[in-house]
Structure formats: structure tokens, C-alpha cells
Amino acid sequence: MAKQPFHWTISNLFATVLLVVGAGLLVIALLTQFGTRLSVEATVTAAILFLVGLIFFKPTPFWLLTSTIGLISLCAGYAAYFSTPYTWLGAIIATVVMAGIVSYGFNLGQVMKRRHSRWYQ
Would you kindly state where each structural domain of the chain is located, as residue ranges? Predict the structure, then answer.
């Protein structure tokens, strides 16, 4: 399959803004309020911003997709660890489950897009 060229569109600009704001929020929350309830809420918000940013970014480069899915999963693990009585097992399970769900979701979307683009053949 040929590599798709990247073009700046309003959708890609919106996605870039979401990814940058999410990264800024994550860094500020972790540096200033590490381990507090406020940082957990900010981390979950950053993960949601990352997820929405990935949805709007088309075509998504592989390096951006994998690194952002990793960040979303780590955010889920961080939130699970500091929201529960500091159980590592819960944090690891949350990280793995979130990575699986998000990866499956983006892969499923690509498969459906490929199948529906050839419905007339």
C-alpha cells in the first residue's frame, strides 16, 4: 500500500492543537501536582484530548499513532494507580486494557474504511 501524502487541513490543524494542548496539560499536571487528585483529572483530560486528536488526524503517521496510544495507555495506568489504594496490578491491567481497546479501535476503523471504499466492485 502506498504511503499517503500529508496535507494541512482544518481537521489536521484541529488535531494538532488538541495534541499540543493535551501534551501541555499532561506535562504541567505531572510537574506541579504529581500524585494528587487534580493531576489524575488532568491526566484523564489529556488522554481524552489525545484520543480526539488522533481521531481527527488523517492520515495518521505510524510513529504518531503508536506514541499517542502509548501515552493514552500510560495516562489510564496513572489514573488507575492514584485513584485506587496504590495497587500496581490495577494500574498495569488498566494500561494494557486501554492500549488494547484503543489499538483495536483504530485498526477496526481502518479495516472498515478499506472494505467500504470498495463496495461498488
Answer: 11-113
